[in-house]
Amino acid sequence: MKKEKIKSILILSIVSILLIMLTGCGTTKEKNEEEKSNNTSNNEQSNEAKQDEEVTTNVAEFVKYKDATYFWKLSANSRENTGLFAQYSTNQNTKNELIKLDSSGNQTTVLTEKAFGNICISNDKIFMQGTESESGSYNKIYSTDMNGENKKEYQKGEIVKSIKGYVICQNNQDENIFAINTKTDEIVNLKEKANVIDVIDNVIYYSDDTESNTLKIGTIKDNKDNGTIATFLRKDLFKESTDQPMEIVEFGEDNGKIKCYIGYRDGTAHLLQDEYCFTMNKDGSNLQKESVQNLENENDQKLKGVYINSKSVNGKIVNDLVYVDESTKERKTILTQKEINEKFEFTSDDEHTINLAESAIIGNEIYVTLDYGVHYSQEDMGWRYAYKRQKTVCFKYNTDTKEITELYKF
Question: pTM (2 decimals)?
Answer without folding.
Answer: 0.83
